[in-house]
Write a structure and sequence with these properties.
The protein is mostly beta strands and 419 residues long. The protein is built from three helices and 30 strands.
């Protein structure tokens, strides 16, 4: 084959290859995965579906692979994305500069993050100073542009010990009230167990040891709580005593029981967790009583027995178990309006409880206590005879009577008091 024929043959091959690429409709360098980018130092940019550089290996001499996956000549820059990893663009000079692995005062920079703690980037170099606490070492504060530390120095309560407030950049003990002091409920002999009408004696449910109740401190007027404490609503239930939900959902005067009767082994005598009689309980509810479940123990129906008796009534399963058009509500027959949103809230280990509220009208009416010049329930200041105690609002089923500083969730009085 002579040289002319050889050239024609090569051209034919190239033309066939070009026609093949055109026929496929696939753009040169197109890809759907890294495996389709076969040149060294390349990868597939899935967003563009094109092979781009992944390292300088894919670029010519004098070029580098920038963060956008483009081979760029090493002549200058306008933004940091055009520079190599661990470097940034010095916009003033148009040069990519390498970030110091261990920056110090005087190191070149473009951002504050290029500088060590206690320094900021000013005029392209790291200089002593700070803009906020994040520029300083942990435990230091940024004060008047400089990082500082010392015993009791602070910028917010989080720098202080539990029970302290950050005031004028110094931690001080909050002495506004008896935080977490043990207490008992108010009595005529001890009308202010927590020293102020709006400091409430709260239930200690966060720990088994320690006081059963502790003092919260008023924050209803926006007072700041010290470190370790948060301002929370103080909620009580209504004054309606209950043993089962129907006593809260139904008109108490229109509650009746199904005809089916039952008998328990011993006289109904509800007791508190300490073994003493429960003075508020009016009934015993014996779940799974055999006489109410076809002679089988452990069924869904219960036997409700009044205090001092052994004989009671089985709970209903449907409206058909009730007379006079009454509805079966939580096992009891109810006439009149049914308020499904109310519940009987019973404490752990107790027989009786109190009804939740659904409207402000369900909450107790507060009155002025002339001996304290404060409202009996909320502790708001009042003048006897002026009827100036405000209504108590119902919030999420509870009656909101105030706000107190108490240990944050996850903390207990023993922890925040160091006991």
């Amino acid at each position: 084959m002579n040289s002319k024929k050889l050239i024609l043959s090569l051209l034919s091959v190239l033309m066939l290859a070009a026609l093949s690429a055109c026929g496929s409709g696939k753009k040169a360098g197109a890809c759907a995965s890294d495996a389709e980018c076969t040149l060294p130092g390349t990868r597939c940019d899935l967003e563009q579906q094109l092979c781009v550089c992944a390292s300088d290996e894919a670029c010519e001499t004098g070029f580098f692979c920038n963060l956008a996956g483009v081979c760029q000549e090493k002549t200058g820059c306008s933004k940091s994305s055009e520079c190599e990893e661990d470097s940034y663009c010095d916009i003033q000079t148009g040069e990519c500069r390498l970030v110091d692995a261990e920056p110090k005062i005087g190191s070149i920079c473009s951002l504050a993050t290029h500088c060590p703690f206690g320094a900021v980037c000013t005029g392209g170099s790291c200089q002593e100073g700070c803009y906020d606490d994040g520029d300083c070492l942990l435990g230091e504060i940024c004060f008047e542009g400089q990082c500082g530390t010392g015993n009791g120095v602070c910028n917010n309560n989080g720098f202080c010990e539990y029970g302290e407030l950050c005031t004028s950049n110094l931690c001080t003990t909050d002495r506004r009230g008896p935080y977490c002091r043990g207490c008992t409920q108010r009595t005529s002999m001890n009308p202010e167990p927590c020293d102020h009408p709006r400091n409430f004696c709260l239930i200690n449910s966060a720990e088994l040891g320690g006081f059963t109740n502790f003092c919260g401190i008023d924050c209803s007027l926006g007072q700041e709580c010290p470190n370790g404490y948060g301002c929370n609503g103080v909620v009580i239930l209504t004054e309606s005593v209950c043993t089962f939900n129907a006593q809260c959902k139904c008109d108490p005067n229109q509650i009746s029981f199904p005809k089916a009767t039952c008998r328990i082994d011993s006289t109904c005598a509800p007791k508190l967790p300490n073994g003493q009689p429960d003075p508020n309980a009016s009934n015993c509810v014996v779940q799974g009583a055999p006489e109410c479940n076809g002679g089988q123990a452990g069924g869904s129906a219960s036997c409700i027995v009044r205090v001092g008796s052994r004989d009671g009534n089985c709970t209903c399963a449907s409206d058909s178990d009730c007379d006079n058009g009454a509805a079966c509500v939580d096992g009891v027959c109810c006439g009149g309006n049914v308020r499904e949103e109310r519940q009987c809230s019973v404490g752990e280990g107790r027989v009786s409880g109190f009804c939740t509220c659904a409207t402000d009208g369900d909450c107790p009416r507060d009155v002025c206590d002339p001996s304290r010049s404060a409202c009996r329930i909320t502790g708001h200041p009042c003048t006897p005879g002026n009827n100036d105690c405000p209504p108590i609002p119902c919030v999420d089923g509870g009656c909101l009577i105030g706000q107190n500083c108490a240990p944050l969730q996850g903390l207990s009085c023993s922890e925040v008091k160091g006991g």
